[in-house]
Fold each of these.
Amino acid sequence: MKAIPLKISSQVQKAIDSGKAVLALESTVITHGLPYPQNIEYLNDIEALAEEQGVIPATICVLNGECCIGLEPQDIEILKGKMQKGDELHKLTLRDLGLALAQKQSGGTTVSATMALAEMAGIKVFVTGGIGGVHRGWQESRDISLDIKALAQIPVIVVCAGCKAILDIGATLEALETEGVPVYAWQTDEFPSFYSRKSGHIVSQIDSAKAIVQAFKIMQDFDKVHSGMLIACPIPTQAEIPFEEIEPYIQQAIKAASNISGKALTPYLLDHLAKSTEGRSVKANLALLENNLKLGALIAKEMT
Ligand code: PSU
Ligand code: MN
């Protein structure tokens, strides 16, 4: 078996070599989660914010068939160029990586693919907006994100603001339990629901980066356990869209998406919400990403 070649940016490589804290960042949020040009602004802002918080950002994506762990300035230009030209940027889950590398594709990596690549690079902490999970109506569609399986099998800590609000949150939490994924809410006992701080679902509370890292390290000492860990960090109060307010928009979006399935579904729903809420959902998304990054930085620093 040959190892998959990783294109680790010089900054990230230097940080790894010197034992500095590195934080992996997801890229499907850039290619498929946020509208253009906010997505490129986000990429620049979030990398700067990471450095402010004392960690080296490693945005992970695939560019022309290469697995990038951290982006060089020219990589950001390539990504930007592809977005401007409307070149195809794929949404790459873990199962898509083989063909993507073989065919020199480019794309954003989802939580499952980013976790796998981060782990291969030795990065243990990863920040995203919301994980994929069990979709509403799963009894019929069987739509359950590969993210759940990745969390069960790849030992990386994932910081998110809950699962995407468009999902069946209760069923997602049950699936995470079945797969043995530890799930903690940050300084609260309620699992947040992405745009809102509340979901009505109670999970275990965790209050410090130290406790997170300790629990994670002990889990790794179990021979038969290789799971990741999910830390759900509620969106800041001032950026929140209360559940009762966003829910009608979500239902509208789901209704409009009745003939869309597979991996096109999430981007469709997010785009629909961005339009129907006149950009409010995008603003909330950006705020929660920054907030997650700050927590991810604390954990990554604790890890070193
Ligand atoms: N949450 C968002 N925006 C996104 C995603 C999640 O707010 O773009 C992406 C993540 O990359 C996640 C993926 O891993 O959607 C899950 O997609 P699916 O439901 O098709 O598995
Ligand atoms: Mn799916």
Amino acid sequence: MSSPRRVVAGNWKMNHGPGAAREFAEALDLPISEDLDVVLFPPSLSFASLRASLEAKNAPVALGVQHVHHETSGAFTGEVSAAMAAEAGARYVLVGHSERRQIFGETDDQVRRKVDAVFEAELVPVLCVGETLGERKASRLEEVLGRQLGAVVSPGAIQERMDAGQALIVAYEPVWAIGTGETATPDDASQAHRFLRGRLREWTSPETAARTPILYGGSVKPENAAELLSAPEVDGVLVGGASLDPDSFSRIIAAVGPGTQ
Ligand code: 13P
């Protein structure tokens, strides 16, 4: 059974305009190990600038967008579609990030429709799931993760896509660890990832579950990236704040480079 690719992804959130994106690409350290998928999620307005600057130095970095609407086009002021993201050169789309859920009120049902739209555009959804501190303290971790994953990967719903060769990435991002400096311990991450992998196995197939990368996100830094990535079931990291600085992002890439797994 094939094991998942290892992934280091950076979510810039609402940071870095086109000029800062170009400077970031120019300062990014190369080479990047071939067994690692490196992905950046810039703001949509900085996408073209970042893409051109990475291409100019032949950097093996794929790009994604942070958000799409589930329709392909229409009167939805301010939105972009998955088809547009694909045309612009994106390969990945973040879906269900806790900031979208909490600040913009995105529901599980909207997340499911977005994931469908992303698959329709032949892009890879990076489905973010994670519990709040209150939910964790109330021992509701599995209930919350199961509900968020199940909204998208209910029995049978996704297997057809996966059988056709499409890919899904899951990102476990405990809400209490995002932007707080608090990181889940490698054991906490493994436990949540093991649960998610088990549900994937149940709802898709053993092959799909085995090849679906499950990333950890929440205060990942150069100092803790290697330890997190060496934890069982952790296939990669989704980095927020520490992905904004080319030096710290390069150090994270180096820390999880060859030989750590
Ligand atoms: P931080 O790394 O800043 O905690 O953010 C994590 C995150 O939300 C990535 O999507």
Amino acid sequence: MKKILIAGGAGYIGSICSEYMLNLGYEVTVLDGLFTGHRDAVDLRAEFVHADLADREKIFDICRKGEFDAVMHFAAFSLVGESMNVPSKYFRNNLCNAINLADAAVETGVKAFVFSSTAATFGIPETMPISESTAQKPINPYGESKLCFEKVLHWYSQIHGLKYAALRYFNAAGASELHGEDHRPESHLIPIILQTLRGKRDKLMIFGDDYDTPDGSCIRDYIHILDLAQAHEKALYAPESGCYNLGTGNGLSVKEIISAAEEVTGKKVNFEVAPRRAGDPPRLIACSELARKKLNWQPRHESAHDIIESAWKWHLKFPDGYEK
Ligand code: UDP
């Protein structure tokens, strides 16, 4: 494996995976439509191609010219709330456009296809932690669109022999030295807490403190972005196709994340309790034993403090994110 195409390499997770792969000596081409990503998030060592996955001919052309060994596919829309209002945007891009990329990968003999999937494919699971055998019943079009594409990959591997790994991220968070999280608008907990601490927002709204959890706020499994990047590289060498849940196995509540952020930064978070956010399951925790065993994945940053500290450093270094 040498030449890697990273679709969505201008986004949060894609940019950090590009950096990680480049640091290991891979040749990286980033393909991005820049709908939600940032041109400045593309690592300077990568080749950049501005293209929309909807443009089937162009995607085939890029794959033919690039002769890639592997494709990593991060280029998707990921706002649960938006998906409940405009499902067509999600099925069109996250499913139909992704099929263009998978078809081009098959046609050009790509040896491994790594797909960004999500814990949202599980919906509200009946058992915790969530393993690969837990039933997948998404409760929003975002999760459903990702699950549909997992199924496409399953059949492409059966029929065309395309080897794939679908990596189901739990709550990706943190930053590398160079790249971090800059969504517009921002909806994720940790960057919102950090923006509040920097005075860029008045306060954090805690979405519900009446859940059936010890402190009443939602519990999530926060996983360091560099550990996710490591899993992508390992997935290139998986012995066979498969799906893997990626988390730490530790659940932290919104209130515990606030306390950890206060400890890391030495500042108090101004917050207020607001109503529950639609579509939020009370608790999502991964069992990642399969990834550890089959991919030889070894996450290194298991504490929330590590994750928050890396994100805080990035926020202080780039106070306006990718905006010049
Ligand atoms: N959350 C919150 N206030 C915010 C943003 C998020 O209380 O401003 C909560 C949200 O309800 C969830 C957790 O923080 O329980 C993580 O949310 P995030 O949007 O970061 O990730 P998700 O779990 O939705 O993928």
